[in-house]
Write a structure and sequence with these properties.
Layout lengths: L8 E10 L2 E10 L4 E6 L20 E6 L16 H14 L6 E5 L1 H12 L6 E5 L10 H11 L3 H11 L9 H11 L4 H13 L15 E6 L19 E6 L6 H4 L1 H13 L1
Parallel strand pairs: 3-4, 3-5, 5-6, 6-7, 7-8
Antiparallel strand pairs: 1-2, 2-4
Length: about 270
């Protein structure tokens, strides 16, 4: 709570039953809203990962940020975490919250889910923004392996090392609150199980590069130049589609919306207004 301070907005955090599991979400309501923006976090993250970006979003769209099933403070059932599960999760989440034709921003794993959902529901999204999306990378990088290690062995030192590597290394200072929250969440019951099960699902589903030409929704792909988690050369796969605009942010790693939120939102705003 308290992610945005603005007299023109109200903010609520609540839980809703999706697929019969308790799912946490944050909703930021704008006066005279003209639509909805949905934000989907990456693997191992939560709604709070967007906290740096939120103060910069100055349009009249309501903002809805779920903790994806198995992550954040949502329920983490002992089930198989598959792409189909996440698609059913999004289906029911959108329907229960009456979200129609939203703008959606997906980071990493969240970006891969956006692509998959768009391929199955080609007219659903109004516009798409993908941030270093997963789904095109064939093999793991050293930095991704370090992040996985920090999730399985969640200590302050392990998490700090991994998050620093994922950012533009020494140029971006990781907040202690982000590190502590990650460690606390990964120590929750079933958190590691959900993480590994999801990771296995993603690795079985890394052939999205062959389907990107099917996207017919206006899409913006943003990558950090110094992303060592999912390297920036993966952006080349997206350039074959005329509906997809690509942009590389200098001096940024895997999460440019955290490392340089002002510049990130400028790119998003220009795209949304075009």
């Amino acid at each position: 709570m308290g992610l945005v301070t603005d007299e023109k907005t109200t903010e609520e955090m609540d839980f809703i039953k999706i697929l019969n599991y308790n799912i946490r979400y944050i909703k930021i309501n704008k006066i005279n809203s003209s639509g909805t923006i949905v934000l989907l976090h990456g693997i191992g993250a939560s709604a709070e990962r967007w906290s740096e970006l939120l103060p910069h979003i100055d349009n009249n769209n309501n903002i809805i940020i779920p903790d994806i099933i198995g992550f954040g403070y949502s329920e983490k059932p002992l089930i198989e975490y598959s792409i189909d599960l996440f698609m059913r999760f999004l289906d029911e989440f959108f329907k229960k919250l009456e979200i129609k034709n939203p703008i959606i921003i997906g980071s990493s794993f969240g970006g891969q889910l956006v692509i998959e959902y768009c391929l199955r529901n080609p007219d659903y999204f109004k516009k798409i923004i993908l941030v270093s999306p997963a789904g095109t990378q064939v093999r793991s990088t050293f930095v991704l392996s370090q992040y996985i290690f920090s999730a399985l062995y969640p200590t302050i030192d392990n998490a700090k090392r991994a998050f620093q590597m994922m950012s533009n290394n020494n140029n971006h200072q990781i907040k202690d609150s982000i590190i502590k929250d990650f460690v606390n969440r990964m120590r929750l019951p079933n958190a590691k199980y959900a993480y590994i099960s999801t990771l296995l699902a993603l690795r079985r589903n890394n052939d999205l590069k062959d389907k990107l030409s099917e996207i017919k929704v206006p899409t913006l792909v943003i990558w950090g130049r110094n992303d060592a988690t999912i390297p920036v050369n993966n952006i080349e796969y997206f350039k074959v589609n005329p509906f997809i605009k690509t942009c590389v942010m200098e001096d940024c790693g895997h999460t440019p919306f955290v490392e340089n939120p002002q510049e990130f939102y400028k790119l998003v705003k220009d795209f949304l207004e075009t």
